[in-house]
């Protein structure tokens, strides 16, 4: 880890990015910046940006995070929220940016080309954003372009003195940047950027992007449809607002759909029967590759797949995201069908699969084929599927299942044990379940954030212990949220992870760790016992 | 695809230190001129929306530092440019002699696919200064631009705002032409995946 604070105003490297002296809350004009640079040389005050350049080894970075967090007994993670971003600005623009909303956002996401042309921005008008793109591109290139050394340092994160974090993902010819004042661990931002990258790949494929950027001035922005932009904004919403939608990313898994084993088996059988139909253009062919039945919010009900070819969780998250952004237009109309080319980057980043999509009572039936012309074939499979399943009837029990499951879990564990909330992740199935969100709004809106911190602790322990990865790791954290205290618990081993939040009245002595642990293990045992109801265990395999 | 197509033009301004690159940009974007000279540190970025015939384009102007110590930033700046403006000071012979070097530097660093068709513009700035001090004649400059490959030539005063609009109008048109050369390829989703279900590992990388 190379870490430096630039003290030389003439060194050039940090001059592109400079917190405005005195902390005005909007972007500062170019002229102002030049003047303030004479009055307050960089490095003379607390406002100096602190650049941290990481090499490929993240371990020291993690160690740094750890020491920083450990030194602080009670993390008040809920303080200092959305206003932080406005306290610094880039040195650019001849007029103060009129886009005040832009500067006051707690979190920003940018996608740009390696030439510095904007592709996507979560906030801000084109006019506001275009100049920033040049600054970002220059910063990244400054650290990267060491022509003689391909392994030159890549800029990963910049943390300013007011704890605003800039995180960069360089996937030339594309650049991704997140700016956050939410103080999350570095790994969170990089995972979010990686997801945005994968989502772009799903729209275009890696080979299309590579081909297009053989001319470096290519403008990818024009090839994003309004639907794509809307989906990107929704993804960023999920990242920025830290609500439950984040848990998929936190856990790298899919959310469960509680269902009786027999019902699941019935659906699997119907899926398998589609593979037995031979309706392809060529005699005796069947171009159905994957079949998925998915409840709203991307909850997987059942999957049909070839043996030895599970779909990667990231691919499924992307597929569901794309499918349910179609639903907005066509929801409720079961006659509407979609035929969508989609690249699943973990499956094959260089090519497209074709997704037949149809909504039945808000549940999505997705049939994937590698054959571009297989729409009518898939349509017939879909008809057969719907007919055989008597879907409306099954749907009734599906909906009931969902409701029952949520209430059941809440009643059985959360209520009786004083646990506010938990999430259980099955590593084997890459799926998770979580209890109903707590009523307390502050806690509800920050659940993912608490878990990110706990997870980061467990992950860090992992990397610092190096040897055996399958030992059980446990973490307890205490937080203060206003007047209240909250205990966070995390436990991870080779087969599962569980995170939970428990209220704690600070005046009442020590945290009863043994009691919390006991209650948590009760949940773990229940999850193990009900595995086949909670998770899609094998799917319909052919 | 997107209903309103956006056009973003990346324009680079190059030239020796002190020839008026920043002033030209400020005059064009903000109609302002400052008598005080401040060396550009690294780069300045300005954005201007402007109409070209019936469409509106966004010009992203990258104003670079003329000073040599910032030249290591070259690759970053030049990559993916749609037009390059070469500026010299008509009262400074050395800045005029540097034009070819700046053009070569750009072509090498930017790694443009067709160097012979890449649009450059040459601007001779500071024509407001006393005629007696002028060392490069219009005739001489126009001749050199011809030799550089028929590069359009403008003489401007960033201070008085003379000819600046006209020069940038040609910049935007030539940049647009360069940008639109991208539209030739087709964007069909034709990258089919060959699936061999009997195979062991296959395409799936998970």
From TrEMBL, chain A:
Main location: membrane
Membrane-topology annotation of the record: Peripheral membrane protein
Positions of the FUZ/MON1/HPS1 second Longin domain: 287-386
UniProt region (Disordered), positions on chain: 1-21
Matching InterPro entries: FUZ/MON1/HPS1_longin_1, FUZ/MON1/HPS1_longin_2, FUZ/MON1/HPS1_longin_3, Mon1
Residues annotated as domain FUZ/MON1/HPS1 third Longin: 418-531
Cellular-component GO terms for this entry: fungal-type vacuole membrane; Mon1-Ccz1 complex; multivesicular body membrane
Keyword list, A-Z: Autophagy, Endosome, Membrane, Protein transport, Transport, Vacuole
Subcellular location(s) per record: Endosome, Multivesicular body membrane; Prevacuolar compartment membrane; Vacuole membrane
A GO biological-process term: autophagy
One matching Pfam family: Fuz_longin_3
Domain FUZ/MON1/HPS1 first Longin: start-end pairs: 107-227
Main function: Required for multiple vacuole delivery pathways including the cytoplasm to vacuole transport (Cvt), autophagy, pexophagy and endocytosis.
Family: Belongs to the MON1/SAND family.
Listed name of the protein: Vacuolar fusion protein MON1
Organism lineage: Eukaryota, Fungi, Dikarya, Ascomycota, Saccharomycotina
Automatic annotation (TrEMBL), chain B:
A molecular function GO annotation: GTPase activity
Keywords: GTP-binding, Lipoprotein, Methylation, Nucleotide-binding, Prenylation
The keyword Nucleotide-binding appears for this protein: yes
UniProt cross-references to InterPro entries, sorted A to Z: P-loop_NTPase (IPR027417), Small_GTP-bd (IPR005225), Small_GTPase (IPR001806)
Keyword set includes Protein biosynthesis: no
GO cellular component: cytosol; fungal-type vacuole membrane; multivesicular body; vacuole-mitochondrion membrane contact site
GO biological process: cytoplasm to vacuole targeting by the Cvt pathway; endocytosis; piecemeal microautophagy of the nucleus; regulation of protein-containing complex assembly; regulation of vacuole fusion, non-autophagic; retrograde transport, endosome to Golgi; vacuole inheritance
PROSITE patterns, per the entry: RAB, RAS, RHO
UniProt xrefs under NCBIfam families: small_GTP (TIGR00231)
Homology family: Belongs to the small GTPase superfamily. Rab family.
Name recorded for this polypeptide: Ras-related protein Rab7
Organism of provenance: Babjeviella inositovora NRRL Y-12698
